[in-house]
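Molybdate transport system ATP-binding protein
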Amino acid sequence: MTLSVRLRHRLGAFALDAEFMAPPGLTVLFGRSGSGKTTIVNAVAGLLMPDEGRIVAGDRTLLDTKRGIRLKSHRRRLGYIFQEGRLFPHLTVRQNLAYGAWFAPRHAPRENRDRVVELLGIGSLLDRRPGALSGGEKQRVAIGRALLSAPRLILADEPLAALDEARKAEILPYFERLRDEVSIPILYVSHSATEVARLATTIVALDAGRVVAQGPAAEMLADPAVLPTGAREAGAVVQARVAHHHADGLTELDAGGTPLFLPRVGAPPGDTLRVRISAHDVILARQRPDGLSALNILPGVVQELRPGAGPGTIVALETPAGRLLARITRRSAEALRLEPGSQVHAIIKTVSVAPLDIGGGGAGVEAAGPNGMSHDGTSVRPR
């Protein structure tokens, strides 16, 4: 099912004028605070009535201001996951889950409760009350409650924002499973490049109430202009298969026929992972270096270079593992005589890839194409 959204709304000095299509999978609304992400989600949920708009989920129109169609929130069949779990404190986990199912339409296709409990790993929590749960456990129960309401669409408004790094690491795999195993679309709000790299199949980038770019996750994440903090947060997402766990604590991945070593990854051989590699963690050399401590050295071809506003340059290169970005100084680019077509080697320290930047495979991580940068030199996404 595809979600089609077109909205116009003014709130004080802020003006929202956005239009996008969210295909099946997990679509992330991505942008700085104040860019309009939550406003869009609340309009889709029916919690905010826009000045003008049309929202269609599959063959069902939720809102069409021109035709006078404005379904109430409870008739839109949406599961909403907030920053906090918002569970009923006087009910057990089992009762909170049953509350979601109680609101499901009688004849609507329903998720099996036992399957949802297993999917989210909350079987041991069923008789507890929310006060006895950690932040991550509360969010898993909130996800389950949303799923059991038989929604046609799931909305998640920065569901990890209130959690510390340990709790985020706990919850991210459950959102990956949700993306890969649940058939309904998910609209997810975030301004975290790590979350987006781990979860997104599609990205809709927002700035000042407008959609500035949209497309598959790998393509979009290769474009620093999409990121809230610009080139400093640039990084590409590569897809790789777990090849072998070594006795010294390293995991060897097969990235397009090239070995990629990371600290031990908790996935069995044969599993496919998506790995975000930050541009500032990539060093370039014209010749294959010897005598380095870095284990990951990938041959590549420079596709394009673009200087930013400061002394930095983003270099896009194609490697056997897929698209990589390197953030280097202009002086280095000139010293190496880099230009499109230059043969280089990308050097990546094994320990530079953070655990939160490694996630399950899923869809939407095909390698980004090699062409097209924005006028300011920070975009490497094909146009």
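thats it. The longest helix spans residues 165-181. The chain has eight helices and 21 strands. bye
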